Fold this sequence. Notes:
The protein is an alpha/beta fold. Helices cover 27% and strands 17% of the residues.
Amino acid sequence: MTSLSAWAAPPPGSPDAPTAGALTPAQMDQAWQRATARYVPERRALLARVAQGEAVGPFRPDWISLAHYRVPAWFGAAKFGIFIHWGVYAVPAFANEWYPRNMYDDTTREHAHQVDTYGPLAQHGYKDFIAGFQAQHWDPAAWAKLFRQAGARYVVEVAEHSDGFAMYDSRLSRWTAAKMGPKRDVVAALERAVRAEGLRFGLSSHRAEHSWFFDHGRELASDVNDPAYADLYGPAVPHFMQGGYQDLGRDWTYISPTYVDDWLARTTELEAYYQPDLIYLDWWVGHPAFRDALARFAAYYYNRGARRGGVVLNYKLHAMPGGSGVQDVERGQLGAIQPVPWQTDTTISNSSWGYVEHDTYRSATSIVQLLADVVSKNGNLLLDIGPKPDGRIVPQEKAVLLDIGQWLATNGTAIYGSHPWRVSGEGPTAAAAGAFKEKLATTYTAADFRFTRNDDKVYAIELAWPDDGTAVIGSITPGDHVQDVRLLGSPTPVRWESTAEGLVLHPGARPTGPAVFVFAIRTAKDTP
């Protein structure tokens, strides 16, 4: 391969020449506005739709009104969903789904890979991967069937990632899967297939951070500088922050009112055209510049959703006031039972949310352990997969999903429709609380239990098998008046005794499948 140093920058005056020092953030934004001027009438029409929806329904576009939001019953009962990161970023299939950003950053291994593999960024930029995103083997009905077999009760598709390529038929962009690449409205086709399987359907938007996502492309010779592609690469203003990525209170990135209007219009498209049961918003929508627009969208979405049994708006960190939506804790857990339903999202891959070559994958056991911990605290698990650009799901991912589905088919009464018990769990292993803390987790033992309750039974979920044939649950005492114990998935009766030490179990034969085991414990009906 040719080394990076061999590539010469385009001459001054080239449309690909660096612009980072030549244009102000406002000028960068104005170039994007000129490139998207043709969509102004449709944008205005969508904003008018929002204004109309704000005024019809129980919610107003202010946070005091939105604090009266209540999580719909279907979400609290669902417990397990599938997230799908599928887009143009699957074509290079390198590192992770942030390849589109990092390929333009000359300090990263993605940049070195890009130049060594494809040549100068002025000749082969991110836009040039679209031709390789064909979805020629995609079968949305087969996907939906697999998700149902995996035990999922809802499916969330990425409608638009930070790369700015819409997976739906946006009226505000030419850079969509309906017009390029697959030339199909991916969201519409998947929505029909998912609902045909009896599952709830959701969408995610990562559009907010697109305003700066390609900013490194302005620092070197690349197609990000070419005004002809400004409608794809966006304003590409410098991401200017003085805290970390999660500290939006100290993020001073330039955002114009026009860009905020565009974000609101694009997010409105999702509800207007597809009526999703859930919309997941990535963290940067918590930037103060979006606050009023976010309240407007929430009122519009909740008012529309009230007509069909209620909808869910996921937010991260402090993007919305507590209680005004459903909190999502990315790649992390919470440390205690929560009074209202919440969600964690994580990926089946060990490295990426989207497809990358030579990836490794988590085991079904580790995911079921996570599910048990989250559900015991009144949460849901949204598990991500990353299909190939041709639409096929990686065999390793499919195998893990089917193993999870097998476990849920046997043990689902401990999960679906369950409620927290008086304590979430016991044992020596506690998950680290907070976002992006999942890698701090330690190995679970047979002394680790998580508890749920459904009807007249307590479900004690043991997170590893007791090799000595005996398990002790200290949280269940003689005062609970245990009447019966069964090990789900096993025909062997469980011998048990209630002692001062706790409920002592001798489960007998070990069930097959993921190494997480559920004891259904019937207690006196007056036991909380």
